[in-house]
Fold:
Amino acid sequence: MEAARIALLFGHHVMLAEAAPNLGGMLSHAKRLPKLQAIGDIGIWLESELYRLSADVRLSTYMDVADVIAEAPDVVIVATGSQPTNPRDILQVADPATKVMISPNARVITSFDLFSDRGKDLGRTAMVFDDVGHYEAIGCCEELIGRGLEVTYVTRHLMFAPAIEVTGRAQAALRRLYSAGRFRVVTQAELIAIDDDHSEIRQIFGRHSEAIPAETVVIVAFRQSENELWHALRGRFEQLHLVGDAVSPRDLQPAIREGHLAARAIV
Ligand SMILES: Cc1cc2nc3c(=O)[nH]c(=O)nc-3n(C[C@H](O)[C@H](O)[C@H](O)COP(=O)(O)OP(=O)(O)OC[C@H]3O[C@@H](n4cnc5c(N)ncnc54)[C@H](O)[C@@H]3O)c2cc1C
Structure:
């Protein structure tokens, strides 16, 4: 959306194809997290700017290589984002070579599952395993606490949500979470096994292992870039750009910056 907005401001004709029925991408999911509703505002503003600047926006329009070629554009900016990793295939950053043993009946879900079915019974205990360290795991903890569960946050990191520590949001979240009296943080730990009602974790730098009560396990892992379209288009267009999570799954700021710079680079 930012690439389209800047290209329009520079006077180019812009067609924006979006596979989903609405614009916003991952923002549409992120804004469902508790205390994160306002993150959607940037998407609302970008969308209104695109229509104000007369972009040719095509919703529910999945583009493959042939579709892109058929449009005969001078420039292609690919911003196809990322997809969540299957939580049962988790490769932990702290120990990617070791496969986590997961019971076939264990309830192991992603944040996408958690927020797409808010009425579902998740039991009385939950573990949020955070391999990323950003806001996503905090949102999952808040949701589960809000639904009345006892929640254990487990991470490989040295501390709770290190990626946003400097913003002060992690401290505010901790205050809210602990006030429920049903919340615990375990750091510097890796996952060993997930069973139906508990999970086994182990200290990364020690030998101690521990069983965590968890009828539901939410895995917050790095998403996977969706960049097959860009690979397939390479060599076919002189001006071809890849931006945002499709390069590497990160945050809004790099996605917006890369989209902005790609549009400015149009010659
Ligand atoms: C739970 C959660 C919480 C987050 N919290 C934060 C936060 O607090 N702060 C922050 O900065 N970031 C946060 N993020 C990350 C942020 O949402 C993403 O980094 C950002 O949205 C990436 O933007 P993007 O445009 O690169 O990709 P996306 O937002 O994934 O958009 C890609 C779009 O491309 C479409 N598409 C894919 N393939 C095709 C195709 N072939 N044809 C047409 N359309 C296609 C998709 O439908 C999608 O709409 C969060 C993400 C999640 C999942």
